[in-house]
Amino acid sequence: MTNLLEKLKQNGSTAMTLPSSTNKTSSNASRDDDDDVSSKASSFQDEESGTGMLGDDSEPREVIGLRETKIVNCSKMLIVIIVSVLAAAAGIYTFSYVRHQESTTYQTSFDVVVQEISSTVQLRSRSVMDNLETVSVSLTTQAKQANTQWPFALFPDFQVQGLLSNQITGAATLTLHPIVSRDDRPAWENFTVEHHDWLLRAHRYDDHVHPELYQAASDDSSSSSSSKRNQGWNDTGITPFIWMYNNDEERRRVESTEADTYFPAWQRAPAEDYLPTTNLDFATHQGDFAPVIADMMQHDHPVVTAADAGGDSYLTKNYKEGRIKLGGAPRSYLLQPVYDNLQWNRQMVAFLSAFLGWERFFEGALPEAETEPVFLVLDGTCGNQSMTFLVSGVSVVFLGDDDLHDPRFDLMEQTVTFDQLGGSNATCRYSARIYPSKDWAEVYFSDNAMVYAVLVITCFLITTVLFGIYDFAVQRRQRKVMEAANKTSAIVSSLFPSNVRERLMQELKPSQDDLKLMQPRNKRSSTKDPSVFRSSASKRDSLGGSMNRRGSADSGPLSVITSEAIFGSKPIADLFPATTIMFADMVGFTAWASTRDPTQVFTLLETIYHAFDCIAKHRKIFKVETVGDCYVAVAGLPVPRKDHAVAMARFSSDCLGRMDELTQQLEKSLGPDTADLGLRIGLHSGPVTAGVLRGEKGRFQLFGDAMNTASRLETTGMRGKIQLSSETADLLVAAGKAKWVLPRADPVMAKGKGELQTFWLRLYVPSAGSIKSLGLGLLEDNSEIESIDGDMIADASSRSMRNMLAPADENSKTQRLVEYNVDILAKLLHQIVVHRTSHPPKMATRNQRKNLKAREGPVLDEVKDILALPQFDAKIFKNSIDPDSVSISPRVHQQLKLYVTKIAELYRPNSFHNFEHASHVTQSVSKLLGRIINPADVRNRSGKQHQIAAQFHDHTFGITSDPLTHFACVLSALIHDVDHPGVSNTVLVNENDPIAVKYNQKSVAEQNSVVLSWEILMQRDFDDLRACIYCNEDEFARFRAVIVNIVLATDIMDKELGALRRARWEKAFSAEGSGSGKGNTARKSLTSMENEDALTDVNRKATIVLEHLIQASDVAHTMQHWHVFSKWNERLFHEMYGAFLDGRLEKDPSEGWYQGEIGFFDFYIIPLAKKLETCGVFGVSSDEYLNYAQQNRSEWVAKGEDIVLSYLASYETSDDQSK
């Protein structure tokens, strides 16, 4: 439409400026229409004639059309050529890429197969050697104990040992060969005849225990003793002399030739009655056996003989004739020395020969699903042997001698060595070459590459066709528009005089508002020039959509998706050549966070990172970002600075010290192990690219190799240390801070970087006056720090600078744990006061409260089958007040702290059952209770709030509706192991301990904890605390009942209590019980209950939930992060192992610890976690606990045996240190 208006304007102006007497003006007007038209074409004879105008316009339009058409056609041809080239290139690339991917997968899969075969070969080789060595050591030990003089040794249990060894190694036979000298030969031959009865006993053992291991040929079973004598045997079945085989067809025996040493076969498993080889000289068995034996005796190591697949071996011949069922695969003898003693001056007195089939090493090397075969060529140095196997899945097929693999796969050759068999200096050494087979390769190579290439080319062709169709439609539309424009121009020129046409054109001229809309935002040219107007409009149209939508590009063919087109300006980025980057990561954070609520996790992160931000502001360091628990900062940008390395060194040191301060302070509110968190820091200096990455949630970011290097330095660093790259260290030295730099002892291997030489940043202890009063403990930039006792370098276990200056009582972990528990209990007391203030109950007088006492008799008798919890009270909910308007008195808070301190003092310094563990249990109880929805949390919900609150009360069985119950649960967790003796109740009962007698041998430790804790609470020092906890007899009774039930629930070994708990569970949560089932889908609203049975059922469920809550919390470390589990499991082991060493435990706990933990997971922990889920009130915590329990069990199964050994080692180390 724009082009049409321009044409009309030009034509109208020309017609209106053509007076008959002025040819010059006419000529100029004509040139305005088209510069290529000659001056004579502008001469008109009649002012009102439209014929002259049409004639003048027709030629320029044709010229322009031809020129533009030519340009368009050339462009189309160029586009077609480019598309064709791109199609070909894309097809070739697709084909190459797919083929490359197939080749990569093929090579990778083959590498995996080779690795599996190699692993199997090494494992089985080691297994065979270990087994034979075990038998050798056993024979040496037996001979030593029996004072046997070699070679005259007879082992009664050799048959048992040999057959068991054969089952493990897969050997066909195991034979003992004493070394007999020439002088001992006569005595030896007499010895063998005199002790021939071992053979009869061996036969009876074989027939009775392992009859399947051999089968005698029928013709041999009927052989007469005379025929045996004809072959050199006597009536005992033993050849009475050392003999050799003459290899004739009759298999006759002849007396062995004279030699200095003989190696007769003696005892063998299985025993021989059809193939007596006793006294066969092994050195003469085959021609290549003598060098192998000499090699074994010279180098004193096991050796292996040449492989025999063709039947040259005497044993193989007889086996293949049906006397023993064996395959046709190659077999060798593996010779293991036997010594006269196990000392360094031992002498070889015999050797064992195991007759092994080579297929044993390859069977089952591949998964059963790996059906396509691979070739395995076994090479031996003895006689340059080569034998080929076909390995397919778990089966192995021997193809024959020589190298029979497919030569097309020579380039894929990979070698596996039998390093465990013999040694590198052995006479016979073996290796295996592995090649793919044709069938195996066909699995990975297909026609997909060609198919995909054709598809890509087809897509390009289709795109070209569609482009042609689109172009045809555009050309068709353009022709119609031009025809309409020409007709309109001719009509206007022929119908209207010049003055009328001028007015018409003026009306058709766009208004100023339209021109403003059509012009670009930055008006750089006048709209009188049509070409400028068109280019500006085109530019606006091509960019406007992208700029207006900020990120969504136009779909038109002329749109260009660039950063400038999307955002309206060039990217904001720059290169900073001199910077120092810090990566700081919290060590132990993941395990710590697994035991905390999300709010506690963010409390820690926000507190520490805020402190780091303040230090960064003071040091003029730029904070880049935080990724998880990693803090990233940089010095040297956005404002460059020469001292960036020094500034970052000071900043990182401040962060390290501040981290120690804050974690110790936060332990009082965030719980145990918070002070154990540390910081691992890496610094690197180098250039980075920095800028704003625009888009959704755009932010300032750094890119470059320097970032990667700094990250690697952090990951390879150590807790409490600052690791520097060589670049940063050089800058510090150049800045005169060489005393800050200490080279790391060993280079580190960094991922993607290789071996790096790094340095530690030295930390010095500041004087008290050098600490700046900023509330952050920062040092002035120009402050000098004096070292104490030389260079004190912070490491994983060193205290921070501030800790070394702080008073000892502030650093007491027990004191911090006391503060933590006081903080939790104080908050619960505050809830009790708020609850009581909302609806004041009947208050007991001071004297009445003094008379409130627990019942006489054992605590165990107070355990209730069902705890009676209060029902939902709508008045309390409606009248509830602002919690911030109520506070507990300072006296109550002081008494609470004193009480918790006394409880902490009652805990013994056990490794596991100590105050720290009690705090850990308290933390877990508080976390689980926090996951139960409190009806008071629904105040901001819409609708009838008290009805919603009642529903939540019913959903949680009223547990969290009563703050007193909540307080009692947490307090029970704190006191449940008070005065724990470090051994189980069973040990106390067996020792007849006084407290076991006192509590009638039942739940001894648990009852003792309740009694001691309760006696302290009843002291006069805690009158105000008790008055705050309970105010009448009902609250006292409920408080006492909850504590007794929960603490006694931690005794999971008492059979009677366990049976009662199981019965309650079945009645409350089984499908046959109340019908509630998982998730509490069948709960009834307590507000609509009119019978006591329904209320009893809900209280029963509440009782069960509370008991399982404390049980899960008592072993919460098993259902938390692996590091948490490993830490507490080691402490429990140390406690029990110490009791064993003290004689209080009869059995060494290390012997069954591995299996015991697995059983504990299977039969207690995992079922308990599933019960938490069934209770349906703990939200995501039940799934979290179950997942951690299953993960920890899997980890323990994989690593537990080695971990138990590490527990033993750590106990011995700690014991030595304590001494």
TrEMBL record:
Q: Where is this region: Disordered?
A: 1-60, 511-556
Q: Which SMART domains match?
A: CYCc, HDc
Q: Name one GO biological process term.
A: intracellular signal transduction
Q: Does the keyword Aminoacyl-tRNA synthetase apply?
A: no
Classification via CDD domains = CHD (cd07302)
Localization, per the record, is: Membrane
Annotated PDEase domain ranges read 835-1052
Query: Which cofactors does this gene product need?
Result: a divalent metal cation
One Pfam family per UniProt: PDEase_I
Using the UniProt record, give the first listed, main subcellular location: membrane
Q: What is its EC number?
A: 3.1.4.-
Question: InterPro entries in the record, alphabetically?
Answer: A/G_cyclase, Cyclic_nucleotide_synthase, HD/PDEase_dom, Nucleotide_cyclase, PDEase_catalytic_dom, PDEase_catalytic_dom_sf, PDEase_CS
Q: Which residues cross the membrane?
A: 77-98, 449-470
Q: Which keywords does the record carry? A: Hydrolase, Lyase, Membrane, Metal-binding, Nucleotide-binding, Receptor, Transmembrane, Transmembrane helix
| PANTHER family, per database record | GUANYLATE CYCLASE, GUANYLYL CYCLASE
The family classification in the record reads: Belongs to the cyclic nucleotide phosphodiesterase family.
Q: What is this protein called?
A: Phosphodiesterase
